[in-house]
Specification:
11 helices, five-stranded mixed sheet, binds zinc ion, alpha+beta, 48% helix
Length: 302
């Protein structure tokens, strides 16, 4: 983190600390004005189930949490890559949401802390498909984390995190929400893709006119084509990486849905975020994840 950034975060934190309490009260008043049907005042510790009985106040609750959090999670930082050949540092078997034993490498408090952070953000009932947690490194930059199905049991997935890339808390949160977006849209009940899969509905709505071109230009395999493809359609994607593959598009749009306020414009990239608002279970999950992030100690002290 450079000095400018430290200064910027420091200033932002100071302002946020000074205005946190009054800001929350003000935004709660705003919520009461805007969601006419909801007369109750929302607070960050409210019971999600209750708040989310009403889907519009549930969405607004999420927006309020975003305004309260002292980070802009969507403002990711570029780092200079220092690539080393990828190696696995440790693998753990996961059962019932917990690390039960080491199956490769050596365990460490640091590894387990990364898993703890992930489980504190993503609710237990949403991560049953994770059968393994791994820690790897490919140097600084390049890949922060990834998920992939387990060879032995493709219904189960592994989540792997590179501790060398976890120095920025907001970037870490961005990445685990992205990886979870893959698990959400590629888990057993979603795949093979069927007409009610989130990914199928997303592609029906947003990929009909670009899919053939994406295939023809081999965008997924060719990095130059990826940038050109994005440059041709900058209003269609939340990030340039989203243009690489429909699976990355839905995962990146999911991150913008969870960590950004509800968009008000009509661009395609905004419609991709609004797509998720069509599913009450996802609006509730967003608020739950945001409340979990809000309650992390890291969220009140950088
Ligand atoms: Zn991805």
């Amino acid at each position: 983190m450079n000095q400018k950034k430290v200064l910027r975060w420091g200033l932002m934190l100071l302002i946020l600390f000074l205005t946190a309490w009054s800001g929350w009260i003000n935004s709660s008043e705003l919520s009461n004005r805007e969601t006419v049907e909801s007369s109750k005042t929302l607070s960050p510790d409210d019971n999600i189930e209750k708040v989310c009985e009403d889907i519009s106040s549930c969405g607004f609750f999420g927006d309020q949490l975003i305004r309260e959090l002292p980070y802009d999670f969507l403002d990711t930082q570029e780092v200079e890559d220092v690539y080393v050949e990828e190696k696995i540092l440790a693998r753990y078997k996961v059962q019932d949401g917990k690390l039960v034993r080491i199956v490769e490498g050596e365990g460490s408090e640091g590894n387990e802390e990364l898993w703890r952070l992930f489980t504190q953000v993503i609710p237990m009932n949403q991560r049953q498909m994770i059968g393994e947690f791994g820690v790897f490194t490919d140097g600084i930059g390049t890949t922060l984390a990834y998920v992939e199905p387990l060879d032995k049991d493709p219904i189960q997935w592994t989540l792997r995190i590179d501790p060398a890339d976890t120095t920025s808390f907001p970037d870490f949160i961005y990445t685990i929400v992205h990886e979870f977006g893959h698990l959400l849209t590629l888990k057993n009940s979603e795949i093979p893709i069927h007409e009610d899969s989130y990914l199928q509905l997303f592609m029906d709505q947003f990929w009909d006119h670009i899919y053939d071109e994406w295939i023809e230009r081999d965008v997924f395999e060719d990095e130059d084509e990826q940038l050109k493809f994005y440059d041709n359609y900058p209003d269609k994607f939340v990030t340039d990486y989203a243009a690489s593959h429909p699976e990355e598009d839905i995962a990146e749009s999911w991150v913008y849905f969870v960590l950004g306020e509800k968009p008000t414009g009509e661009e395609i990239w905004e419609q991709k975020i609004l797509f998720f608002y069509g599913f009450p279970e996802l609006v509730q999950l967003r608020s739950e994840i945001l409340q979990n992030i809000y309650q992390l100690p890291q969220s009140s002290e950088e």
